[in-house]
């Protein structure tokens, strides 16, 4: 208690603390539980950057924790790249959340204080465009201010390196060390905005970067002639869920030749409260409610939705019963992989050294698709920074040409001109694939059924349990520790054939992966960005019914073993 109360009082009595933060802290002076939540630790600058609830305190997102993160990153840039890094500079973007613009400006002014040039977009822009701009401008680093799909009370901060990917091991841990060495973030100084502009250390980016990015997106189109043939009859409904995707996705679809693009107008304008949806996450079918209403009015062929920073994409199409149904992240990844490889193979443009990357917790179906087309398939840890690292390694050894990467949590990357999840490109290509299969009198569910018939019925289940606060974090750690110490020997009557503990790998990850004797599998890990413990289960069978039954039996047995019945 003394530690967090001492930290609370140090903040409260610091003469430099701004008045709003001081008043916020005074309001909780008698609430020891809330004080503990805000001050029991520093908001961790982890391997994915920062993410937390907005508010005053060491364990909250505010200008002081943002300055601390920025100062640590600035010191790392100067240590690694010196004057060259300062001159090349850093790109900063942000989403629509509360204080996102303020946090982005603060980051730029921290950089300016350290003599590092900062480029910042004139307004909100999506994560993939931030990644693209780093590469396009030749910058040394980048920062995206976003909490992705978290609830409105959150914000966050993702750090990137010169390849356009998020910081990876060992860079991430080296930056974390710099950040952790800063003990008094309130004392950090920033350069006044006017001075930074006058000295050429702060530059605002305009429409030219938008145009360059959208031009790159169009290079990914595979069947523009099919889109042109279908344009009069094919209908798209799109929602950015109040986030950054509105302008670029709409323009990308128009550039691709889609004529009938209907926007969910109530969700088009940026809104930090996400007023029309409880959960701004395309993984949640409820996020599509307004899109479905519009789709029924216009008889849409596909509904596409993005999360606030437009790095995730979800798609709904009609199922056999004529109802709009959400495609899972694994199903979408498999459809896009088959579409890309089959179209390039048919056109004679499939590289002999083509490569696709996915994650350990995503469907094994992708491996079978790659095998059929002679493409290389590689798996990585969860998180697109690991996929970006794999692309960089392929480029450096000149062995493999990257085509596509995805993870089951609705993240997709096509090409490689940006190095993070790209919902702009994925939205365009998914609509193109839907138009292509519609020209054959098929829905995307029909296309998925064809894939299953060709390769086998792969089924997956993802489940997470949310445990908030200090007590929740401790319980998640204990659950993982108990599973590590007491692993099941069999599950649903099937023997465990192999256990991989990724805590022993380099880089280490607190993830346990189990392969069963029938090649079904399950994985358990804590989320790196949310107060959740996550479960993944996968199986394969000759029929959909058998695969579903196996999946149900495995999940029931796993949750019983974990005490989550």
Structure write-up:
It is a single chain. By secondary structure, the chain is an alpha/beta fold. The chain has 4 domains: 1-37, no CATH class; 41-205, Alpha-D-Glucose-1,6-Bisphosphate, subunit A, domain 3 (Alpha-D-Glucose-1,6-Bisphosphate, Chain A, domain 3, 3-Layer(aba) Sandwich); 213-455, Alpha-D-Glucose-1,6-Bisphosphate, Chain A, domain 3 (3-Layer(aba) Sandwich), CATH 3.40.120; 458-561, TATA-Binding Protein (2-Layer Sandwich). 42% of the residues lie in helices and 21% in strands. It is built from 19 helices and 21 strands. The strands form 4 sheets. A 6-stranded mixed sheet has the order 1-5-4-2-3-6, sandwiched between helices. A 6-stranded antiparallel sheet has the order 16-21-20-19-18-17. The protein has a 5-stranded mixed sheet with strand order 8-7-9-10-11, with helices on both faces. Helix 11 (246-256) runs parallel beside helix 16 (423-438) and helix 13 crosses helix 17 (444-455). The radius of gyration is 24 Å and the shape is globular. It starts with a helix and ends with a helix. The model has no long low-confidence stretch (mean pLDDT 96).
């Amino acid at each position: 208690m003394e530690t967090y109360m001492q930290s609370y009082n140090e903040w409260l009595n610091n003469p430099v603390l701004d008045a709003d933060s001081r008043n916020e802290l005074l309001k909780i002076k008698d609430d020891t539980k809330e004080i503990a939540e805000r001050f029991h630790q520093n908001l961790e600058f982890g391997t994915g950057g920062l993410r937390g609830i907005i508010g005053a305190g060491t364990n909250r997102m505010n200008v002081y924790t943002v300055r601390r993160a920025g100062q640590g990153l600035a010191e790392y840039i100067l240590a690694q790249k010196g004057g060259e890094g300062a001159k090349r500079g850093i790109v900063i973007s942000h989403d629509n959340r509360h204080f996102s613009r303020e946090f982005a400006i603060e980051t730029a002014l921290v950089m300016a204080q350290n003599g590092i040039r900062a480029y910042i977009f004139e307004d909100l822009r999506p994560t993939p465009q931030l990644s693209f701009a780093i590469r396009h401008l030749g910058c040394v680093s980048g920062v995206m201010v976003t909490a992705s799909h978290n609830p409105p009370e959150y914000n966050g901060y993702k750090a990137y390196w010169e390849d356009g990917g998020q910081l990876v091991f060992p860079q991430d841990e080296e930056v974390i060390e710099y950040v952790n060495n800063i003990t008094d973030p309130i004392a950090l100084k920033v350069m006044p905005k006017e001075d930074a502009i006058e000295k050429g250390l702060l530059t605002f980016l305009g429409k030219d970067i938008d145009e360059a990015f959208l031009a790159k997106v169009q290079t990914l189109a595979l069947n523009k002639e099919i889109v042109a043939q279908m344009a009069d009859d094919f209908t798209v409904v799109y929602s950015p869920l109040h986030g950054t995707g509105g302008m670029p996705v709409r323009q990308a679809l128009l550039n691709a030749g889609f004529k009938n693009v209907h926007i969910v107008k109530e969700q088009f304008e940026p809104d930090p409260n996400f007023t029309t949806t409880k959960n701004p996450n395309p993984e949640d079918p409820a996020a599509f409610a307004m899109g479905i209403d519009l789709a029924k009015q216009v008889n849409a062929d596909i509904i596409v939705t993005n999360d606030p920073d437009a790095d995730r994409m979800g798609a709904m199409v009609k199922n056999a019963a004529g109802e709009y149904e959400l495609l899972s992240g694994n199903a979408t990844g498999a459809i896009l992989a088959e579409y890309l490889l089959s179209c390039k193979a048919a056109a004679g443009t499939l590289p002999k050294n083509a490569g696709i990357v996915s994650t350990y917790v995503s469907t094994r179906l992708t491996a079978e698709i790659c095998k059929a087309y002679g493409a290389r398939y590689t798996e990585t840890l969860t998180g697109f920074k690991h996929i970006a690292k794999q692309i960089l390694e392929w480029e450096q050894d000149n062995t493999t040409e990257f085509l596509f990467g995805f993870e089951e949590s609705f993240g997709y990357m096509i090409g490689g001109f940006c190095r993070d999840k790209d919902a702009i490109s994925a939205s365009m290509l998914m609509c193109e694939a839907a138009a292509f299969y519609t020209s054959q009198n098929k829905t995307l569910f029909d296309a998925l059924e064809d894939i299953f018939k060709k390769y086998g019925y792969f089924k997956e289940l993802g489940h997470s349990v949310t445990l908030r606060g200090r007590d929740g974090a401790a319980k998640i750690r204990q659950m993982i520790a108990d599973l590590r110490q007491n692993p099941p020997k069999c599950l649903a009557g099937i023997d465990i054939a192999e256990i991989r503990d990724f805590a022993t790998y380099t880089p280490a990850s607190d993830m346990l992966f189990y392969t069963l004797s029938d090649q079904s599998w399950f994985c358990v890990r804590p989320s790196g960005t949310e107060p959740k413990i996550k479960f993944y289960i996968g199986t394969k069978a000759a029929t959909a019914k058998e695969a579903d039954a196996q999946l149900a039996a495995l999940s029931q047995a796993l949750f019983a073993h974990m005490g989550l019945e």
